[in-house]
Every structure is written in C-alpha cells, then in structure tokens.
Amino acid sequence: MTTPAKNTICLWYDGSAEDAAQFYAKTFPDSSVGKVYRAPGDFPSGKKGDVLTVEFTVLGVACLGLNGGPAFKHNEAFSFQVATTDQAETDRYWNAIVGNGGQQSECGWCKDRWGLSWQITPLALTEAIADPDTAAAKRAFDAMMTMQKIDIAAIEAARRG
Q1: What DSSP element (H or E) covers 82?
Q2: Alpha-carbon torsion 151, 129, 141, 77, what sign?
Q3: Does the fold of domain 74-161 match that of domain 8-70?
Q4: CATH for the stretch 74-161
Q5: Strand order in the sheet with 32-38
Q6: Phi, psi dihedral angles at 148 (to 5 degrees)
Q7: DSSP assignments along 51-79, one per residue
Q8: What ranges do the domains of the chain cover?
Q9: Distance between CA atoms of 142 and 58, rounded to whole angstroms?
Q10: Average pLDDT for consecutive 10-residue bins of the chain (161 residues)?
C-alpha cells in the first residue's frame, strides 16, 4: 500500500471526475490518473458501483476528484496557475483547455469544460510585472489587462516601451 500525499486538493465534480482526470493527464506533463474508487453503496448523487472518487496528479500536484453531484460548482476562487516558458507552450495549454469545451476569460484565465479555472501564465509576464522599473512593469501590466490569452511578444514590447 502506498502512503497518500499529506495534502491533496479535492475537486468536486458532478459525475465527471474520471473524465476530467483523464483530460488533465493527457494535457499536462507530470500528470497521471491513479486509483478509481467506486461507491460501496448508494449515495445522494449516485448508485452503488458508480465512480465516487479518482486520485490524479496535475503537474505534480496531488488531487482527488469527488463525484459529489450538482450541489457545488467550481468558481474563480480556486484556480490552477500554470507557468509557461514560451508562446508555444502557452498556446498549447490554452488551446487544449478552451478548445475542448472550455471558455476564455481575461488576463490569461480560462475555464475547462467542467468549470475549473486555469491561469496560463508565461514566465515572461511574471517577470515583466515584477520589473524594478515601475514604468516598464506598468506598461506590461496594462498590456496584459487588454488580453485574454497572453501574447508574450506584446508583453515584452510593452515592457520595452
């Protein structure tokens, strides 16, 4: 028996935890689906034998998907922030999430088809808004505020002035 992670993020789904875990595992590196637990009896949102929980990892972070039913929905109060190294990686993750039933939002945020929020954040953006030259940082920040998916070239151009 393996020792479970000391801290695991539990994410609530309405019957689709296994589908979500499979999507994350195929989309992100260092991600996988672990054990799938089936309910030993009927429960408020399912029947005996239905998938109750799914252990999975997203980018090295231990998660548990709970098929808790329709009572609670994901919202922006929780998100995964994914640091990307270049535009190709930024585009790949953004397009995977948005292009598979998700939706775009502002400033590098998007939602997957289960309503879970993701921040696809290029390291170039993080560095630009932390620039000790506060005018450069503000220009980069102002540019970001006009974007949905982050455009690294535009952020770097704004930073340079």
Answers
A1: strand 79-84
A2: positive
A3: yes
A4: 3.10.180.10
A5: 9-13, 61-67, 51-58, 32-38
A6: -100, -85
A7: EEEEEEEETTEEEEEEE--TT----TTSE
A8: 8-70, 74-161
A9: 31
A10: 79 98 98 98 94 97 97 96 98 98 98 98 98 98 98 98 96
**What per-residue confidence (pLDDT) applies to 4?**
67
124 vs 104: CA distance, rounded Å? 20
Please give the Cα distance from 9 to 79 (Å, whole number).
Answer: 11
Give burial (CB, 10 Å; 0-12/13-18/19+) of 160: exposed
* 27: amino acid identity, one letter: T
3-state SS string for 113-137 = CCCCEEEEEEHHHHHHHCCCCHHHH
Count the neighbouring beta carbons within 10 Å of the beta carbon of residue 50: 13
Predicted pLDDT of residue 6:
85
Cα diameter, the chain: 63
Burial of 111 per CB tally in 10 Å (0-12, 13-18, 19+): buried
Cα–Cα distance for residue pair 50/43, rounded to 1 Å: 9
Between CA 75 and CA 114 the distance in angstroms is 10
Residues 127, 156: Cα–Cα separation, whole Å: 10
Q: How many residues belong to the chain?
A: 161
- Domain spanning 8-70, CATH class: alpha beta
